[in-house]
Amino acid sequence: MPTDEWELNRMLHAGLVTVPRDDALVRMRRAASEPVWAQALIVGIAVTFLGVFLILPLLTVFAEGLRQGVRVYLAAVTNAEAGSAIRLTLLTAGIAVPLNLVFGLAASWAITRFEFRGKNLLTTLIDLPFAVSPVISGMIYVLLFGAQGLLGRTLAAHDIRIIFAVPGIILATTFVTFPFVARELIPVMESVGSEEELAALTLGADGWQTFFRVTLPKVKWALLYGVVICNARAMGEFGAVSVVSGHIRGLTNTLPLYVEILYNDYDFAASFAVASLLTSLALVTLVAKRILGGKVEPAEMALREGTQTKREAA
Amino acid sequence: MQMKTGRRSVIPGFGLTMGYTIVYLSLIALIPLSTILLKTAGMGWHRFLSVVLSPRVLAAYKLSIGASIAGAGINSTFGLVVAWALVRYRFPLRAILDAIVDLPFALPTSVAGITLTAIYSENGAIGRLFEPLGIKVAFTPIGVIVALTFIGLPFVVRTVQPVLQDLEKELEEAAATLGASRLQTFALVIAPALMPSLITGFALAFARALGEYGSVVFISGNMPMRTEVVPLLIMTKLEQFDYEGATAIALVMLVMSFAMLFLINLLQTWSAGRHADG
Question: Would you say B200 and B273 are in contact if contact means Cβ atoms under 8 Å apart?
Answer without folding.
Answer: no
